[in-house]
Each structure stands twice: as C-alpha cells, then as structure tokens.
Amino acid sequence: MSTSSKTVELGIVQMRCEEDAARNLTRALEMTREAAARGARLVCLPELFRSRYFCQTEDSALFDLAESIPGPTSGAFCALATELDLSIVISVFERRAPGLYHNTALVVDGPRGVVGVYRKMHIPDDPRYYEKFYFTPGDLGFQAFDTAACRVGTLVCWDQWYPEAARITALKGADVLFYPTAIGWHPEERDALGTSQHGAWEVIQRSHAVANGCFVAAVNRTGFEPDPSTEGTGIEFWGQSFVTAPDGSILAKAPADEEAILNVTVDLDLIETQRRGWPFLRDRRIDAYGEIGRRFID
C-alpha cells in the first residue's frame, strides 16, 4: 500500500471502437491526451480498444489483429507517456510467439516506458465472447506495479468477477485496481436481463473496493458492434465506466451510450482510513483458507 500522503487524478477513457484499427489508435491517443490536459496523471483505456471486439466469432484470420510487444500500440503510448510525463494503462492483443496469443494489459510510466505486463488470467467462453479461441491464459500471475502516480493493479474484464484476483492484487499493494473492459448486452436480451446483468457487474466491483479497502476503476467501451461473421446480432456495449472509493461509493460514472472522459481525483489516504475502520486484512484467517485452491468441495 502506498504510504505517502497524496491525491492522484485518474483519467478514464470510455470510447467507441470502429473497424479501422488505425482510427481507433488515433482516437485513443487523442482522448488520452485530452484526459491529461484536464489534469489526469494516470489514464486507463478499455479492453482491446484498437479493434472492434472480434471475439464474437471464431475466425483464425482475426489473429492478424495481434501485435508484438513492443509494437505499434505500445510504441505510440510510450511516446505519448514520455511527452506528457504520464502513466497509462493500455490493453493489447499480444502476439507472444507464432500461434501463442494473450489478452494483455501494459502499464506505461512516463519516460520509463513499460513498467508492467499483465496477461489476462480468466478467459471466458460464452456466446459472442469466444475468448478461449484467441487467448492463452495468463502465466504471470496477479501483479501490482509502481508508477509515478501510485501503485497500480491491472486486471482485465472477466477477471472482475473473481474476488481471488482482486484480493491477491490488493495484497501486492495496489492502490487502484484497474479493469480494462469490453462488456455489454446481447440486444435481444436487454429488456429481460439488462438491468440485472449490469447491476451484478457494478456491485461485484464495488465489493472488491470494500473488501480490499482500495480504489477500483472499471473502464468499458460503448456503442453497438456487429458480429464480424454477420451470423449474430452483435453486442451493445453498455459503457457506464466508473470509479469506486474504498468504501464502495461511486465517485464518477460515464453515460451508457456515448464516449466520455472521466477525470476523478482520488485521495490515497482514504485507503489507510478505510482499512483502520474496517480491518478486513487484519482479521483474515490465512490459516483456514487452504481449501480455496480446490475446484469444488464435495
């Protein structure tokens, strides 16, 4: 946990993603620059923002969207971070080796360049979220990285449903848990399930903030994206990116259906205050949790 007394201004970039990767990259850089101009010192972008969400279908040709690290996206954001002396969390479809790909979050810290690499640990396989076809599960574990702004924990989208991921990342000293995200409704299900689905997504992340006494930032994309195969009806990404304080209160939330930049000032002293008042870390029974490593307890 950060022990210095300071505030940090976060920049949350919620954006639409087009078919043209170059346009998406340009737009992401522009919105990051704008967040910095408004005062942000630590900016996070949505999951896989350089393309539309291609995992709606299984198509081996779409592996061509992947890039190595270093590569075009990391290079562009390293240059911007150096220029602005800015810390940035970006999401990359990583080509690690021929036939080996990851859904990867990078932490870039001003002129220091890339200071953190996190590979998404939990990989979903659901209708229109066929990520197991594309991504190898992460092999770097849960991590936190020091930046000029604060100590940053990086998790990605499906990771946000797992309290174990949030807990371990917080135990490694993260002041803020960032979740670059691509989540939304199946349009045909929205009327029946939309409210409950979105409510569950929001409350689980607020609970991570409370249980761990840290800040949480969920950074989603917005807008409708068609199924690349044209066989499905697509996904309506629900936006509503938000930042939660250690007590679970929502400090700021973006709209559902438009691009937005949230600039949110967080007071890191609240981490200490919250953990003193609700000492969950003190009272953990680490001697009694061995069974958590089992798949199921019959």
Would you write up a description of this structure?
This protein has five helices and 17 strands. It has a single domain, classed as Nitrilase/N-carbamoyl-D-aminoacid amidohydrolase. The protein has helices spanning 21-37, 72-84, 163-171, 190-212, 269-277; strands at 7-14, 42-44, 87-97, 100-109, 114-119, 125-126, 129-130, 144-146, 151-154, 176-180, 184-185, 215-219, 222-225, 235-238, 242-244, 250-253, 260-267. Strands 5-4-3-2-1-17 form a six-stranded mixed β-sheet. The chain is globular and about 50 Å long. With 298 residues, it is α+β, with helices and mostly antiparallel strands.
Features:
298 residues, alpha+beta, Nitrilase/N-carbamoyl-D-aminoacid amidohydrolase, six-stranded mixed beta sheet, 5 helices, 17 strands, 24% helix
Topology overview:
Elements: E1 7-14, H1 21-37, E2 42-44, H2 72-84, E3 87-97, E4 100-109, E5 114-119, E6 125-126, E7 129-130, E8 144-146, E9 151-154, H3 163-171, E10 176-180, E11 184-185, H4 190-212, E12 215-219, E13 222-225, E14 235-238, E15 242-244, E16 250-253, E17 260-267, H5 269-277
